[in-house]
Structures are given as C-alpha cells and as structure tokens.
C-alpha cells in the first residue's frame, strides 16, 4: 500500500457565517470540518459510517484536542489532513493537520474514537474489524501537540444552564458533538476572544444527552487563561468535559 | 452574454452535523448555503462583497422565503441554482432552486437584497453600479413560489428570551442572519418537526442586533400550522420577523 494513501487531504473555504466577529473561523466550525474529514477518510478506506451501519456498528468520538497558531480568515482557503496514528483493540487515535492557504501547518488536532455495536452499545474489537485491515492505514506522520489530558472540575456552582432544543439534536437523538463546543465557548464573554485567542481546545465526550435535558456548565480557572469545563445533564451525570486555553 | 452564465449552480453534500434528528438538512444550514450561493454568484460576476468592499459598499439581506417539498438527507448530494430576477434602484430580487441528487427541483427560494454604503449606511443605487451591468444578469427562469409576504404579530407576551452570545456575532458585529433562523426554529418543540415538516419559511430582516442584546421572541398562530414570529431587541425595536408554515 502506498503511504500517500494513508493521509487524506480535504479542502475548505472559511464561509462568512462560519466566522466570528474577528473574521476568523470559529472553533465549532473547525471541529465540524475535522469530524467530517475523519468520516471522509474512513469511508474512502472502507471504515466509514455507511459501511459500518450495514454491520450495525458506528464510530463514537471520545476525545478531541485542537491546538492552533492561527485560524483561517473569512473567504480564505485552507485544508485539513487526517491520518490514523494508532489502532488498539478498543480505541483508535486519529490525528489532523490544519494547513493555511499556502499549505503551511497552522495547527494540529488529535482525536480518539471507539467503535460500538448499535444494538448492544458495547465496544467492538477494532483489531478484528475487516480482518484487521484498519491497521494497514496506521501512519507515523508527526503531530506535534500533546495528547488530550485529564480534565477535572471541582466547582460546584454552574456558570450557566441550558435546556437542549430542536437544533441541538442529531440523527441519533443525541445532542451533537459540535453543539457542545458552541455552548462551551458561549460561556466566555466576547472580550475574551477580543483580547486573546484560543490556543488549545479539548473535548472529552463522556455520555450522551438528549432533547429537553437541562445542561449545567461548571467552569474553573485552572491556570493563567486556562479553563476546565464540565457539563452535567439534569444535575447529575457528566456529559462532556472541556479545556480551553487562551493566549 | 450567454444565458447559461446567468444561472449559477453549486453542489453540496448534507453533512451529518448539519442534519436534524430526522436525518434531514436543517433550514438554518440550507439558509447558510443559499446565502453563500448568492455570494459566489455575485462574486463570479463582479458584484461580490470583496469587490464592493473596495468601494465601501456591502450587500444587505432584506427578505428570504424558502418553500420545499423535501430536504436532502444526511450524506446526500444536492445542488442550489441561483439567479437574479429583478434589479430595481434600491433592491434586487435573487431567486434559488434547490435540486435533489437526481437534479429534480425539491424547493425554491426568493430573496431581496439592498446595497448600502458602509460609511453612511445609506442605500446605493443598483442601476448605476458598475455602469448598470448588474441588469445584464437578469434572468426569467421560473420560481414557482409566492413572494415574501407581510408578517404582522400582535402578541404582547414573549414565548422566549435570549441574550446574544459570542457565537451569534459575525464580522460586522451583528447577530448573523443564520443564527436568527436557528433561534426561531428552536421556539418550536421537537414534536412539531416529528409530526410535521416545514413547508414554507420566511425571514424579514428589519434591523441589526448586537452582542449582549436581549432578544424577545413573540409567536402567534395565524392559521392552521402557520406561525408568525417577531423578534425585538431590548424590549423595543423589531429586529426580524418570520413566518413558519408546517405541513
């Protein structure tokens, strides 16, 4: 197998309604593009949702970490590369590079995925899937950002509450992975994004939430310009955790 | 000038995070695509935002009406055609057709735009712009849906209130046109979208709202499965009006 086939490259343009007040692409839209690229890359190699669904399996995103020097500007072209770094029995690590219009890397991302049975919701063994052929795509391309770390929030008073609505819900009946990013960034006043920019952003997807759930957002400043966030549903179960580091 | 050049056609795929619980593209994402197509079409013909900005003019969306038989499903390809129907001194009518993956029209849209000076915020004369050459693109392609109508809301008690946040705000410092669509559809319980679907959707953009504004949503049932919505900022000024007809 040719090594070039291991890395998928996908082109985008920063659309105006996908940019924030500063004219830069938002993190939630970048997250959407990253997850789409993961889908395209897997589908092109026989591990896409459509193929998996036939066998009643689906990919589940567990962790996402993005670190950036710069975001594409409105109307600017950019591209995303993605490749598989590791395949374990229950998880696979998929990495990304974000390239500016000149092809220079302006950021990287790491993600961790599991595959589950849609019937039992139990994890599937990735090493036996398609006779283990997913491991043929493992690639040692460099991804010079640290792996998603542990996020721990002790704060007991929510900074915000939100009841999930129609536009939060995806085809699985869950709040979609991208909407959490939007809700989490909306916890910060716009001044944060004026004086600073996001250097690193992490998401840990712990459990699903559903239509009508009350999400409580707990935020803690854990370092200079570094915030850990925990989202609970209906006052009890942790749904997602996130880390936002501004610079 | 060849008449084919009057109609622009742009291809899309319904991305998973752009679909709702039913696996169909959401109206807000369709709205985003429509406005992008307007931008592409204008830019390709010398009337795009980039060219206008050099001359300190910009397009302002005044009205949008969308009527559909069907929405594209998750992962399905579809395309959008757009063309200019009329050019008046202060407004231009731009229409759209939404074609399914087989190229069959499943819906149409109408929009009304003005051009304003970014310095004075006053409207510009479209008939003298670029020596009136915008009128060369006027096209009599059929758009078999009715024009945006009058929307009148007398309801005095808001059904919902919302303070605008970071992710609502675009590069102009305004709540972006697409976010209003999302907030308006979120006024309806998900059951509405389960039992029915949106047949026609209208937006009238009246004034701008800004970061931190409190938006109040007034909703009135004006016919069977037909709702008029008015959004006011800070308890006084009308910002947008909308009509949603379910079927």
Automatic annotation (TrEMBL), chains A, B:
Residue ranges of the Acyl-ACP thioesterase-like C-terminal domain? 154-224
Any stretches that span the bilayer, and where are they? none
Domain spans labelled Acyl-ACP thioesterase N-terminal hotdog: 18-126
Q: Which InterPro entries match?
A: Acyl-ACP_TE_C, Acyl-ACP_thioesterase_NHD, FATA/B, HotDog_dom_sf
A Gene Ontology molecular function term for this protein is: fatty acyl-[ACP] hydrolase activity
Superkingdom as given in the UniProt entry? Bacteria
The alphabetized UniProt keywords are: Fatty acid biosynthesis, Fatty acid metabolism, Hydrolase, Lipid biosynthesis, Lipid metabolism, Transit peptide
Its family remark reads: Belongs to the acyl-ACP thioesterase family.
| Protein name, per record | Acyl-ACP thioesterase
Q: Which organism is it from?
A: Phocaeicola vulgatus CL09T03C04
Q: What is the lineage of its organism?
A: Bacteria, Pseudomonadati, Bacteroidota, Bacteroidia, Bacteroidales
């Amino acid at each position: 197998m040719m090594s070039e086939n291991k890395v998928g490259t996908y082109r985008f343009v920063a659309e105006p309604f996908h940019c924030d007040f500063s004219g830069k692409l938002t993190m939630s839209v970048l997250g959407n593009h990253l997850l789409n690229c993961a889908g395209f890359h897997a589908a092109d190699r026989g591990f896409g949702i459509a193929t998996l669904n036939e066998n009643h399996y689906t990919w589940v995103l567990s962790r996402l970490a993005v670190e950036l020097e710069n975001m594409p500007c409105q109307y600017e072209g950019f591209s995303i590369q993605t490749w598989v770094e590791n395949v374990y029995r229950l998880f696979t690590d998929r990495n990304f590079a974000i390239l500016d219009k000149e092809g220079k890397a302006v950021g990287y991302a790491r993600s961790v995925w599991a595959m589950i049975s849609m019937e039992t919701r139990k994890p599937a063994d990735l090493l036996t899937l398609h006779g283990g052929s997913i491991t043929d795509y493992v690639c040692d391309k460099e991804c010079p950002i640290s792996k998603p770390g542990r996020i721990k929030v002790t704060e007991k008073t929510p900074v915000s509450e939100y009841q999930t609505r129609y536009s939060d819900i995806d085809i699985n009946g869950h709040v979609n992975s991208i909407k959490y990013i939007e809700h989490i960034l909306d916890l910060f006043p716009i001044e944060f994004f004026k004086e600073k920019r996001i250097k690193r952003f992490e998401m840990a997807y712990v459990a699903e939430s559903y239509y009508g759930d009350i999400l409580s957002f707990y935020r803690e400043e854990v370092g200079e310009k570094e915030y850990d966030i925990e989202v609970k549903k209906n006052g009890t179960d942790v749904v997602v955790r996130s880390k936002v580091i501004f610079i």
